Structures are given as C-alpha cells and as structure tokens.
Amino acid sequence: MKQMITARLQRYWDLRAAANFIGGGTGTGLVVASGLGWLLGLDVTIPLLAGLAFVGLGLSMVWLEIGKPWRALHVFFHPQTSWMTREGILAAPLMAAGAGFWWFDQPLLLAVAVFFAIGFVYCQARILRAAKAIPAWSHVRTVPLILMTAAAEGTGLFLVLGEPAPMMVSAALAMAIAREAAREAYRQALKRDRAPEGTLEWFVRPEVRVLQAMRWVSMVLLLVGAFGSGPAAMAGGLLAVLTGWGLKVIMVTKAAFNRGARVPRTPVRGRDSSRLVQPH
Length: 280
Known about the structure:
Blueprint: E1 4-6, H1 15-39, H2 45-65, H3 83-104, H4 107-129, H5 135-138, H6 142-161, H7 166-192, H8 197-201, H9 206-225, H10 230-254, E2 261-263
Antiparallel strand pairs: 1-2
Helix pairs in contact: 1-2, 1-4, 1-6, 1-10, 2-3, 2-6, 3-4, 4-6, 6-7, 6-10, 7-9, 9-10
C-alpha cells in the first residue's frame, strides 16, 4: 500500500494579504530606519511619514480581504490568542507616536514609534508562523526572514526617500546581506524538513532566479553607494525594496502549499483492514 499525500496551494490569502505584509514590513522598516537616520543627524520627516502611510495601507488591505468588512472590529477581540489582534492593537500607538514626533519633534516619541514598529512586524511574522498547515509559513525560519526582509526594505527605501548618507547605505547593505542569509537558511530548512514539492519548486523557478539575481545586483549597487555614489545607493535601495515585495508575493500566494492529507493504509473491500501492512 502506498502512502497518499496531496498537497494543495492555499486559496484563502491572495494579493491583498501579500500587500498587508508588504505594507507592514516596508512601513515598519522605514520607521526603524528613520530612528537610525535621526541618530545620524538626517532629516527623517518624509521617510517616517511614508512608513506610517505604508503601515496604514497594509492594514487597509486586510480590511478589503475580510469577507464582511463591517466586522473588521472583531479582529480586536482576541489579543490573548491571535497575533493578528496584537498586530492591530499595536498599530494605534505606532501611528500616534510617529505622528506625535512629526508634530512635536520630541525624540522620545520617535523611540516609542520604533519600539511599536518592531513589535508590529514581529506580530506579522508570527501570524505566518501560526499557520501550522502551511510549511512555507509555519517554519521557525519564517520569523527571522520576515524581520530581515522588513529591515532591508526599510533601510533601502530610506535611501530613496531620505538622504543616502554613507552610514545609512552601509546599514542598508548589511540588512540586504542579512536578508539573503535568512532566505538561504529558510530555503535549506524547508528542503531538509521535506516541505511540499510545490513549495520547493518555487526556489528554482525562472522568476525566482531573476529575483535572486536582482538582490545580488542590489547588494553590489549598495556596496558602490557606500563609497559615495548617491545614484548607485538609491538604485540599490530601490531594488532591495522591490525584491522584498516579490519575495512576499511568492511566499504568500504561490509557495503556500499545505502539508497534504496522509492515508497511512488504504482499506480494500472484502479484506480485514487490521491485517494490512503499514507502509514504510
């Protein structure tokens, strides 16, 4: 008797769900990068406001994804068990602190915004981690991958919206390298733990190889930018953002196969099923 395994691509989360992780990751990454930029003496007004806007846009995608949008407030009812609830709860103080810093120019408020931004993106990572039926999401390596992707997107976009100062370019390069390391560890772990074949296939598809090549180009441009080339730094930062978005779209909508139903032994009509041999 053969073991029957049928892994299927999930159909519940689409591009709107991916947009939530894109907006939340890029937005919180920008808020944290703005905190670093402030410490470096840079003007962080536009990057910070853009970060808050990205977070708000991502949350609006969740609202659009809900089958009955008027029931959106129900997301706040289960903070003790739901990472999505925790994400939604952290959004309000994040927005308030960020807006407060922009209006009152109080550094403490920026620090508070950075704190809640880190908490927000961590909740997003744990939302995926909690989806036990989807190996591409529930793996322990998913959390550092989401966090490093947010950091790479945030520091990369800061170079486009803010000042590409050498220290900020170096930070963006470091985060891009860290993201690549986290992605490779994630890929190797899924392969080692025998993720569904449909998931593993996405690591060798042409479009994914193109994304990988673009990430390497991004790192080369950021390296050039670290030596004083502003245009190279901005181009590298933009590529870091776009490749991060592509990674999340694939991860959420394309590689998200379930574990499949396992039938350890198949009954045969007219025979005692208790005597059937278990497959090995």
